[in-house]
What does this fold into?
Amino acid sequence: MTANMIKGKGFRGALRYNLEKVEKGVAEILGHSFVNATQKTIMKEIQMVKVLRPNLQKFFYHTSINFPPHEDLSNERMKAIAMDYLRASGFENHQFIRFRHRDADHPHLHILVNRIGYGGKVLSDSNDYARTEKILRDLEKKYYLTQVIPSREAKERAMTKDELEMIKRTNTPSRKMQLQDIIREAIKGRSKLTCSEFIQVVERNGVNILFNQASTGYVSGISYSYKGITITGAKLGNDFKWTTIKSKIDYEQERDRLSILITNARTKSIQDDAGRNQSNPPTKETTLPPYGTNGLVSVKRNQQAGGRANQSAKGPQTNNQKPERFQSNEFNVDKVLASILDSDHRNTVEPVNPSDLAFSRDGRRKKRRRGRRI
It folds into this structure.
């Protein structure tokens, strides 16, 4: 049993969607809390409660609960499951309406429920997805339904409906599935790779990595970019989270700090270039700098030498022209090196005559005004 939850502010549209299904004969109403099930009556009663919290925008849930195709539940059994779901979610004193849909190859029901109770109290939406998942797992046990693996235990995220349709249409795996295969194969069947080796292996297969790295060097998360999509490790599955990846590779925070910093700069540069190239296609081809600080320094020197040569050949630049190094696709080496230095040192200023200098509160020097002699 799975659920899709949407918080919304357009109750009329969600209600109209389900009532049209009923009119077409592919859905039926399984109970409600209103005087009658007409759109006019429901919207009037909804508005009477909505005025208790006029500033609340997303005031209702539209939830669909889906069962496997082989579980052909009766209406009475589905009603009982829906009522237990509402009670466990805290919606005992809230307006609701339930629909059973028969327009798919699996049984499913839709529930519209007002987050504002009859007394004006709003049900909190904090951790609502996690709470709903736990409720569904409990209901599966209570009603002897097919057990679904909790998301926290799932090694890989299941295919979405759109991905499944694309596979049927193109007969090729989705980019997310390709990405999972690349990362899995990078680690599988090898002795423990170092962090740098892991980065090189996945980059050779077209995957760019962005680490969530703090200024201290601590890494708390990871995301992957592949063929125009960027996705976090958590959304790929538990096997692709940073906590799992670092346990399968040879990772040391201090040793790998610089390598991760450079990888982040390279990935951000590629993402920035991709965004710019959508509107302004590149006029020349450039190569990314190699790994390590030596490669960065050599790139920096080549940029400086190239800039001086171009300036001497073409004459002085005008204000409207940008230096060649700002037109390159390579990432800003100065920023990378500066961030490395700033993380370990503090800049200090030792003025020759401290009494002649004055500083504002933010530490910047300001000129001392000289008084006029009279």
The chain has 13 helices and ten strands. The longest strand covers residues 108-117. The mean pLDDT is 77. The radius of gyration is 30 Å.
